[in-house]
Known about the structure:
The protein has 661 residues and is α+β, with helices and mostly antiparallel strands. The radius of gyration is 27 Å and the shape is globular. Bound molecules: 2-(butylsulfanyl)adenosine.
Amino acid sequence: MSDPIANEVLQLRREIERHDHLYYVLDSPELSDPEYDGLLRRLRFLEERRPELVTPDSPTQRVGGKPREGFVRVAHSSAMLSLDNAYSEGELADFDRRVRELAGRDQIEYVTELKLDGLSLAVHYSDGLLGRAITRGDGAVGEEVTENARTIRSIPLRLPEPFAIEARGEVILTRTEFQRANRDRLDQDLPAFANPRNAAAGALRVLDPTITAQRRLDFYAYLLLANGAPTEPLHAGALDRLGALGFKVNTHRRTCQGLPEVLDFIRHWETHREALPYDTDGVVVKVNDVALQQRLGWTARFPRWAIAYKYAAQQATTTVLDITVNVGRTGVLTPTAILQPVPVGGVTVSRATLHNEDEIARLGLQIGDGVLIERSGDVIPKVVRVESPAPDRRPFVMPTTCPVCGSPVTRQEGEVAVRCVNTDCPARLKESILHFSGRRVMNIDGLGEVLVHQLVDRGLVQSVSDLYHLTLEDLLPLERMGETLASKILRNIDNSRSASLDRVIHALGIPMVGERTAQILARHFGSLDKIAQASADDLQRAEEVGPRVAEAIRSFCSEPRNRALLERLRAAGLEFEQQAAPTSGPLEGLTFALTGTLPTLSREAATQRIQAAGGKVTSSISKKTRYLVAGGDPGSKLDKARSLGVEVIDEAALLGLLQSN
Ligand code: IVH
């Protein structure tokens, strides 16, 4: 019997799964966000009309689970042990020698993989459907975190065939997501996570899946099992098969003939790992031949067929010259160690975060002390421990008044953060303006720290909305300001009036509402007024919005001073409504690429204008590209465009096209 709605639902699910895989696993999307959202919206609409068609593997069911009371403990199919470590090439050579001796072979074929720094997870499928996800726990028994794991987009809800398998792998946060997580933590006045691994653990091991969903966790699979045992004769084959089943498998892997090739791989990533989007703390070396793995077996704690080579942490010793206190956007006072500058892993470090008073006490740190510091990836360097207390050391005392405005500070019971009570504190205002004008927010190029300080200190800007009333006369007297720069900044401020609704929501700096939540809110409500009027229940109907986020939005929007700010921003002409994605316009059907610096438009602004006129902007050039818009100092795209015969135009020609309607 034919049921056209059921058929469409099935078709939409397959289509969305394919695009999820392209986007989240292969990192090569084919659809724009609005196109993808259109598919998901249609599926939701149909499933709402026909609830009996909803199945747990539908892409609409990623975030649906309700908060639980506690975790259920579940036994693993086979021990989920960790790896022995090698800290030097010598220790790795010992490992290779042991394996060769036990195997009775002269040379071993190994597979090398990057060791991602997260937490391990076992994901079970039966009949091809995601069943349970279990953390490592003590290796024998872990905690069931299925609802949380479902929110991780790189974990397929359904396999292409009805297999019963188990994929083990690492749940990680990219560095960008880690920074976002820490910004959100600061917004909530919670102490920052020390590293991406803690942040990932914090997001996976929470009882409320909506909290997990707010972090874009990622999952890289590295072992394939059925009934607790490997399914493929070669480990390299297992990784390929995991990829074919729809899992994300790290492409930085290699099958190596003997130790020298393993060392090549390790040395290569030692110097290239900084450029990766996530932290790696080493390389995992595994015997490729699974039958040999089984012959080698396990010690009580580790497999004898694999080892983790650990890179040395990037550490250095230096002196704490002073401890200063910054005041953030929410008024929280954060102590920072000012260091005798020291090179660490190719970067000169002169500051380290100390998070809060308790952290300083925990370290037993005083001003003047010699300390060991560490940096990994993009993470702000931190003090690991005091190495040599100075004879004339001075204890740090948290100020009792705000170092910026002099108002009293408070520390609420049960909180680690100390906060300035003055909501008009200039420090808070400066941080709010910097957040507002940020690149991924209202994207006002040129509004840097130095300028913002002057604007606030001279009373030219008392609220972010004042930015829209600045004039050339206001800016010209400022330091390092000429007419060209001033006009450019004013033009950038002016351009920001057309920033999309999600950016405006993000720009408001509502606690717990970062970029992603702002996008979700914009999409769900379509208007800032609707969000401001929504009840906590209404707010929670939006995907991924839980009770705490809803409460933060309610309390922000019910504050009279924030309501007044909204009205001033509305009067300044900011976008309070979601603009429908244009399906037609003068540039409909045309694909553009951009290169170099355009004389007046920022890259973001050019992209927005092209898209608003129905055109498409891609990051690379192909035969499908209709125009390359080139500015000063163009990149390699220009050569590529010429070799493909793609027409190259300048900004003036683009503006002409935009007007030709
Ligand atoms: S294999 C018996 N492969 O590192 C094999 N582990 O210190 C066990 N890890 O518990 C794991 N990347 O959480 C393996 N490519 C990789 C890995 C990896 C990260 C983690 C994993 C493991 C720990 C061992």
